[in-house]
Structures are given as structure tokens and as C-alpha cells.
């Protein structure tokens, strides 16, 4: 065998790397060095390089796997029917209205705080939500809301306690529920950044959530705190999804959210304080993942689906309670 033949059959480096005597990682269709420099990448033995079963094939999958983010951060595209998108958007828009009316939403419970003195950010948003109900098209309100959001963002950044962080994020969710769906034409860049900021804070909330709650809390207050954290995170991500649907006609599935624990006893959120402990004892206690819960809703295993459950069903499965079939042969849960 001549030296020329031997060189052609044995060389695995691309021509560009071989020419300057640099190590070549032999990736297909371009090695890393050629990709970085933006130059042509050609292999001397092109047929062998394209079909070899040696080190090239082993390296390429490894490189691809290491570039994938951790599984809980992955996002998977999804699209829904326009009617479902409208349902989700309307559900998010109703939060400020409900808060102005009842000082309560599906993720903010007044009994978690002192009813006589709500935390500052939430008290401020209650006043703004009431003004929004009275005059939803006010441009002045929009400017005030942006200023207040910036102030609350700064408070969230320097929050000294977990409870302070929760309060700030809840207030920011309410603010975004107004700004996202009543935005001026040129506000997309602002809303894109603030919506991403909000989901980043929701992730931070989950990371900082205490493993154990103080023994001084009553069972009801402890449950309301834990449930408020979970619901606030879920609503923050549904808000991002609704914004994406509204702007781009598609959204993403986020395994981190689908893996969140969820208490199927959603009726406890609205149970009267005097009857709460009895209701908690007699109701079925079950913590499942949000994905499991949305699957239970979709399969008809939950009767009496709450408004919040209906929003979860729409956001996770692209369906509403009105379309759910309730099989009689399977056990069902009362939501």
C-alpha cells in the first residue's frame, strides 16, 4: 500500500484541521473548530466519514446530550384551538376583577394574611385592580401599574423572608394579568422581558420554599401557605403560556410545572374557616403531580371541577370541563 493510499484511508481529521496540524473532533457535518471559525469543513474520505461506525458516531450523540438542559427545564411546543386560548386568556383577565371584588383569587387567599392589614404590595394592587375595574382603558393606569411593578420587582430582589417574596410575586402576577392583555401596540418587548422575569421569580420561589413550616401555624394556615406557593407558581407559568398563545398562537409545555405537587382537595381553598379542619379530615387526601391531576380532570375522575381546576385543564390539556366525559365505572374524586 502506497503512502498516499495509507494517508487517505487512515486520516479522520478534516482537511482544514489537518492543514494547520490542529486536533479535529471529527464531528459531522462540521467539526467544532470549523463551525466556530465559519469555514468549510471537508473530510478526505467523505464516504467513510459519513457512514463510519467508529468514534465519530459515538461522539456525536454524547455532544448532543450534554447540550440539552436538565429535564425539568425543557420546553415542548404545544398549540390549542382558538376557543381554548380565549378561555385561558379570559381566565387570566378575570383574576384582577375577582381580586378587586373579593380580595381573593385562586392563588391569593386573604386568610393567609391579616385581613385588617394586607401586605403593602397586595394592598397596592387591590387599589389598582379596583381602578382597573372602573376604567380598564386608562392609559394613566397602565403607566402607574408599570411604575408599581418596577417597585415591587425591586422589593422582590431584596426580600428578606420567604413570605415577602411570595407577596411580591403574587402582586406581580396580578399586575401582569392587566398589562399582558391590555398592552399598547409597542409594549411587546417590555412584556416579553417582564413575563420571563415573573416565571424566573416563580422558579426562585420554588427553590426557596421551606421544607418544614413553623409549628406556630394552625393546620389551615399551614395548608393555605403551601397551597398559595404552589398555585402562585402554576398561575405565573399559565400567564406566560397565555401571553405566548395570545402573541404567537403557540406555547410550551414545561416539565418543571407538570411535576409540581398538587393537592386534589381544591374545595378546601374556599371552605369556611370554622368548618375547615372537619372538611380536611373527611375529604380525600392525595398529593399528585400537576400532570397527574390534569390527567384525572381529562379522564373524568374529578367531579365538581372548580374554576381553578378548569383553568388547569385548559392550560395543560387544551380542554374545558364542559367537554369532559365522566365514566361511571371508574372511581371519581370530588374537587
TrEMBL record:
Domain of life the protein comes from: Eukaryota
Gene source species: Aspergillus wentii DTO 134E9
Alphabetized InterPro entries for the sequence: Zn2-C6_fun-type_DNA-bd_sf (IPR036864), Zn2Cys6_DnaBD (IPR001138)
CDD domains per the UniProt record, alphabetical: GAL4
Identification of the protein by name: Zn(2)-C6 fungal-type domain-containing protein
Domain Zn(2)-C6 fungal-type: 13-43
Entry keywords, A to Z: DNA-binding, Metal-binding, Nucleus, Transcription, Transcription regulation, Zinc
Name of a matching Pfam family: Zn_clus
Keyword Transcription: yes
MF term (GO), any: zinc ion binding
SMART domains: GAL4 (SM00066)
